[in-house]
Design goal:
This is Helix-turn-helix transcriptional regulator. This protein has helices at residues 13-24, 64-80, 90-109, 114-121, 125-139, 144-150, 154-166; strands at 2-6, 28-32, 39-42, 46-51, 54-61, 82-83. By secondary structure, it is an alpha+beta fold.
């Protein structure tokens, strides 16, 4: 069994406890920065996905072509995911924080507003704002327009993130 959780799940103790239990029984658990739809695939033959208009509902999928697509989407997300920290290690927390900041920059550069970015990342608007303030401080931006100009190339942000981690 392989499970993907959103970034914020690592700070929710009941989820950490559940992930620990899964790992004890042989499962693998990782974190993604962006929302990944709820998906359960059974033996590659049937999947259950959440309904777009009702997160408490589900759709059973048996079509092999759709299953193939869903599994490939999961595998892509899995490959980019970080290990789920069952115990807090400084380096893991810093790496997770940098991943979320990079995702914020990416989503803002795609034109999403603050509330949408926070929701897609599974964090509160207040947490989003704290990360954004740190991003702006790190790159020396005086306002959001200035930040957009400075971040015109995401490599600038990555370079500053690497510098920050070295300190």
């Amino acid at each position: 069994m392989r499970t993907l959780y959103q970034y914020a799940a690592q700070f929710h103790q009941p989820t950490v406890d559940h992930a620990s239990l899964l790992v004890e029984h042989g499962a693998e658990v990782r974190l993604v920065t962006e929302v990944f739809m709820r998906l359960i695939v059974f033996d590659g033959e049937v999947a259950l996905i959440e309904l777009a208009d009702n997160p408490k509902g589900g759709l059973v999928v048996r079509d092999p072509h759709v299953l193939h697509f869903l599994v490939r989407a999961f595998e892509g997300a899995w490959a980019k995911a970080l290990p789920f920290p069952l115990a807090y290690e400084r380096d893991q927390v810093l790496r997770s924080s940098e991943e979320i900041k990079t995702a914020i920059v990416k989503l803002l550069s795609l034109g999403y507003d603050d509330k949408v970015v926070a929701k897609r990342l599974g964090i509160s608007l207040r947490t989003f704002q704290r990360h954004l303030a740190d991003i702006m401080r790190r790159i020396g931006a005086r306002n959001r327009l200035h930040a957009g100009y400075l971040l015109r190339d995401l490599e600038i942000f990555h370079e500053k993130a690497v510098e920050q981690q070295k300190r």
